[in-house]
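Backbones bend. Shown next:

***
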Amino acid sequence: MRTTLSAAPRRTRRRAAVGVLVAVLGASGCGVGDPAASPPVQPAAPEVVELTVGGQPAVAVVPDVEELSGLVLYVHGAGEDAGSLQAGDDQARVTARLTSDGYVVAASDAHLDAFGNAASQQDYVDLAAELTRRYGTTRTFLLAESMGGVAGLQLLAGDRIPGLLGMAAISPLVDLDVIVGTDYETPVRRAWGGRLPTGTENPAELPAEAFAGTSMRFYLAAEDELVVSAQNADPLVSRLQEVADVSVVACEGGHIDPSCFQPDDLADWFGGLAG
């Protein structure tokens, strides 16, 4: 079966998305309590910082805490941009949970539909460096979605981000060869300067040793017909079992199904890596 990837409408609702995150963070019950009791102190909403790094728009959601837990870089999918970090309900739930645990959560436009090309990889390296400098974080994690799996795997294998402890991936694209002959061949060629990636430019062709000692967690839906796991994550997981810490969480439905966005599990896994 060939994998076909249909582009989603690009989401650019950066400012509107702030309200989504605040709503997720600030939701509370409506019960009537003791009128004499002091109202509970609500945690301050995280600050949403819009910035430009390396010429690319970026967003960082920064919790108001005394000590930050680390930095999570959201590596977006096709048809998305930095604002997608908060624009969707699923992403907003994850962002809200991670910021409540003290993580700075950030994303870059990263040249948009770049399919993991060198420029997009550098965008994430630059964003990590800038936010580490600003906020003094020492631990970094990747959270890659769909197309973002390509850049995420290259960054993890290349060890290009200091303090990078691991990558979680939701319905990740791994093997760029599967797009040949599909509607996505043209945008991939466009992203790669008119050609298709060759050799180890394709994460599926990276040697297992490149991932030695790394940690990865995959959220995979058995009914995903867009990025078929049997053609993407499954072969990689099999190859890396002997050299890396690899785990798989099964979820329901199709591509990037809401069940694959598991804020509590992600927070626990990142926390375990941090020690």
About this structure: Residues 118-135 form the longest helix (18 residues).
